Amino acid sequence: MDLATLMGLVLAVGAIGSAYLLDGGNPDAVFLTAPILIVVGGTLGATTITTSMRTVLQVPTFLRIAFFGTSHPHSETIERIVRLAEKARRDGILGLERMLKGIENPFFRKAVQLVVDGTEVTVLREILETEIAYIEERHRKGIAFFKKAGGFAPTMGILGTVLGLIHALGDTDDASRMAASIAAAFIATLWGVGLANLFFLPISDKLQMRHEEELAHLELILEGVIALQSGDTPRNVRTRLVSFVAPQHRLQEV
């Protein structure tokens, strides 16, 4: 579980909910079926129109990445690539084949396999850059889905409020009942704005952050295997890859 995502969500919802309760608010007045149905159903429906069913079915995967995704420490990858360079220097490129089973990252394993197969450096770079481009495209679909949902949700909330006001103003015989209906109408706006700013847009930004982290990790692997294929010494490989680590963290990480 990503603590930043969980803590941020709990803090935001908790602060707003606590303030509402401290002002004497009634939780039952907020959790109304009709406004929630309009906002959630309308938002998901409108967002689905803008994308494909394949992307919609991947929403649980996107949420898992946002809440349970892990970072990729550059130090571990650099050390592994340096060990591969040392192995290649002792036993040759073909000696790397025995180390493939220990590489869990599919992109990393594929890259090393291409090196073992003797793929030319230019072709190797082209293949891996194409792979990165397709990975980036898949990530952007998830980012766009939640960003669009964050745009639709407030509008659906306003739509729900308008529908509620139409219903409330259509019955003016009982003033107290009309006032209660008007108050209930604005619950839809609350849910629309709340879901957009506390869930959809933050999840989109979290996925963007995960995307940038993974992209940097893939670029690190790309440069590492290019160095392997070029026959660089382990020392030169390390020096080349350390540039991916921020200067203030280089002593701690590498």
Notes on the structure:
The structure is a single chain. The protein has helices spanning 3-22, 27-30, 33-49, 53-57, 59-68, 74-91, 106-116, 121-169, 175-185, 187-230, 234-241, 250-253. With 254 residues, it is mainly alpha-helical. It has one domain. The longest helix has 49 residues, at 121-169. The chain is elongated, with a radius of gyration of 26 Å. The two termini are 26 Å apart. The mean pLDDT is 89.
Quick recap:
This protein is mostly helical and 254 residues long. It is built from 12 helices and no strands. It is elongated.
SS summary, helix count: 12
Radius of gyration: 26 Å
Report low-confidence residues grouped into runs of 5 or more. none
Number of domains: 1
**Into which percentage range does the β-strand content fall?**
under 5%
Cα distance, first to last residue? 26 Å
Topology:
Blueprint (H helix, E strand, L loop, with lengths): L2 H20 L4 H4 L2 H17 L3 H5 L1 H10 L5 H18 L14 H11 L4 H49 L5 H11 L1 H44 L3 H8 L8 H4 L1
Helix pairs in contact: 1-10, 3-8, 3-10, 5-10, 6-10, 6-11, 7-10, 8-9, 8-10, 10-11
List the defining traits of the structure above:
254 residues, 12 helices, mainly alpha
